[in-house]
Amino acid sequence: MTTTTLPTASEAAPAATPSGAGKDAAAIRLSAAGLIRSEWIKLRSVRSTVWSYALLVAFSLGLAAIMSGSLDLQGADVSMVPAANQAIFVAQASTFGVFFGQLIVAVLGVLTISGEYSTGMIRSTLAAVPNRLPALWAKAAVLFVATFLVGLVSTVGSYLVSSAVLSGKGLHASLFDPAVLFPVLGGALYLGLIAVFALGIGTIVRSGAGGIAVVLGIVLLVPIVLQMIPAAWATSLLPYLVSNAGINMFGLMSFSQVPIEWWVDLLVVLGWLAAGLAGAAVLLKRRDA
């Protein structure tokens, strides 16, 4: 009598081909929408983000109120002040907070990436995105858009505050006056760009304290040091520093002896940003997490 051996379930079942599942998993990992959504969740779920953006708005509104309230016309006839000069002062009061806000968003840009390195979350991020660079681009895009929008809220809110205070002193300017609108938009744009630049520095340094020190040194200390050097070459370099070009970009202060167009200042800021992101991309691909 012949005994027939039945195949086991594992032998009978055809071997699963992982190619299809692997492709699906790769598609999920490399989905641009998924990366953007993931980076947005990480950005808004961190306390430092909420505090940084809240401080940015609070400082901007407070400084706008202080600058507007401190204006002393000394009995001058406001009706004799040209409308263009009134618009310039309203724009200066509306964007005064950008001078300090750039420091806040620069710190936030560093913390956005250094926090992942300190907690080890960067390993999960890079495991989900083996190519690595799409994760950096998604993080930069989310940070820029969020910072630009919050910066716009702060500059527009500062305009409303300063306009209300200055109108009581007889100074008026519409938000849609080009002399006001362009600085308001330019200030928000610069805040978004400097945050992404700081993200690149943070990715290079991979340390919260170290990255903040480097960024604040570039944004704050280097301009002060160059201004103290009594040499022509130091004066010539001032317009090409990222913070000086960014502030001059919205037309309220000039660090050059010759007028520089706003688009040239924008190119200078973009050059600094591109250098920071390029260094971050190269090191992110080469180094271990």
TrEMBL record:
This is ABC transporter permease. PANTHER family: INTEGRAL MEMBRANE PROTEIN-RELATED, MEMBRANE PROTEIN. It holds the Pfam family ABC2_membrane_4. It comes from the Bacteria. Keywords: Membrane, Transmembrane, Transmembrane helix. It comes from Cryobacterium fucosi. Coiled coil: none annotated. Residues 1-21 are annotated as: Disordered. The chain crosses the membrane at residues 50-69, 89-115, 136-160, 180-205, 212-242, 262-284.
